[in-house]
What does this fold into?
Amino acid sequence: MRRMEVALITDRKELRAVLREKFPRNHGQLLPALHFLQHEFGHLPDWAMEVVGWHLGIPASEVYGAATSYTELRIKKPGEHVVRVCTGLGCWMNGGKDLLSGLAHDLQAKPGETTSDGRITLEETLCGFLCGLAPAVEVDGKWQGRATAAAVHASVNGAAKP
Amino acid sequence: MTTTASPIKFLSQIAAEAAARRKELLGGKTRHIVQVAHCSLAVGADKVVAAVRQAVGENEVIIVAGCDGTCFQAPKTVTIAPDGRREVKGHGVESDFFALQKRIAMDGCGEIDATDVDDYLAHGGYAGLAKALSMSPEAVIEEVKASGLRGRGGAYFPAAMKWEGARKVRNSPKYLVVNAEEGEPGIFKDRHLMEGVPHRIIEGMAIAAYATGINEAYVYINAEANLSAHRMEKAIARAKAAGLLCEKILGSDFTLNVTIMRGAGGYVCGEETTLLNTMEGYRREPRLRPPFPTTAGLWAKPTVINNCETLANVPFIMAKGAKAYAAIGAWPSDSKTPPNQRASGTKIVSLSGSVHRPGVVELPMGTTLRQIIEAVGNGPMAGHALTGVAVGGPSSGVFPTSMLDTQIAPGLLHESGVMLGAGGVIALDERTPALDVVRRLAAYNAAESCGKCTPCREGTPRMVDALDRILSGKGAQSDIEELRYLADVVGAASLCGLGQAAGSPITSALRFFGDEIAMRVASGAR
It folds into this structure.
């Protein structure tokens, strides 16, 4: 998950044109097209998924069904920053558990929730493949190994500066 | 005009040119090798590269390599003086981390410039491909068969048998899919290979494709493995430019086009039929088998799906011969066991949890868990005692410390359902009791169940509920019975490997920690 950027594409017509240029019309292009949407919008807006379905000749319900089955694709718009704490076994036992509960307490948001000011979304991820550097936390797409709550707060605050 | 008889000659020519270029670049200079991988980036390897780049003198060069598997040392730099003196700078002490290791797939990881084709060639790269192209495809399959290579993704199906099956199918086009979807916690080996020696995977792919008569290959890479995808892309481009990929590979008539495809997350995506569904733009759900992918796979065409690690073993087999490979880690070592049933070669193990030296290690089959945890990992964290070891990820199980002398081998390690799987070894100490671990594994399986088949969808959460009741002291004898029953039913009736193995952690827990479970039930009943 990258830090949310301001979407350059704002309407259906424009998105159709971009899709036509980037993705040949076959079923196998669904996942690449959904990756493109997520990169562009930070999540998968309903209207954009409809346009993808129209372009690829796939019913919108099927696009939605496929999109929701993958863990890395998000349907809901996240906060300005996304903090993901790894709770794989290695991280869990080496401090990830406390890190997650500490961050949830500090941010007043449970895993899966966004802070009331819409600034930070806290998530739990099942593995960040950094077991050797546990505990691991991802802030706006950048992983931190041997992570501490202080380092996570610092990078969120640092990223917020212009 | 074709020059099919001379791939070896072609290779020796381009290898000589590559060596000359390397000499010109590196001759008499100090090399600063910075190990940059997904893991080390998380502890500032990019900053190390920037700092070294700024400080590098006239007679010095910087090489960006993958990681040699020493996660505990990241970020790590190795400086090699022109006279060969080495200086290692890193987070911890290397000591005898490599003593027990035997590097075949990971050979050169952390030493060679990850994507540079010249460096890989100078390291003996593409010799296996040249040899294969100078043989008939059938002879290549025979060689791999004699090596006893089994798939390293967890199922351990003999690689040559899969290739042979696909070769015989008369339907075209055929596809090769490299399964680099590493979705399970505790396992991080494929990305190390892609980040450290992407050319070896490309070489293995080309050999597999040649042996099976395939001209179109896909590399399916995990959604999160951005660096792996980046390095693979770069390596593919460089291999193409050097005449090692695409048309007329090494001057032969063989053509192979490679495309990279990115996944979107989910444990079940690594299951081969699910992976095909994903590539075709459907939900991440498995398909019924048969037909097997070798008969009807991607777009209903014959498809060979090999794990990344499997293919990384192939160049060694072709270059050094099947005998040299079968001699490594041959376990059991009695000569009566046919080679294809022996545990030949090495296995990459992702070592983590309560150890001083976590990392990615390549060990001969037959190495014991005790050796892995104590000799390689240097034992449990200070002040803690080892209480067990979780082997093989969420589809496998947990061993108590009394079972530490179990040897790693393809497939099942114990009748209780503990398998080597894709090779994760997580050392546990008293901070995380084995039963809690089993509960987490069960919860993971429940969360990751795709929901397509009822036994897995309904059974896995019920296993978690029963474990929760027992762990909270509210369990009854009937919960133990239910766990046993569910583990059996979900294992027997599920559609894919995830469901079929979802009961394994429970079965292993009932087998090895049965007393503890019974005690919890009894204390709760008071």
Observations:
- Chain B touches chain A through 58 residues (CB under 8 Å).
- The longest helix of chain B spans residues 7-26.
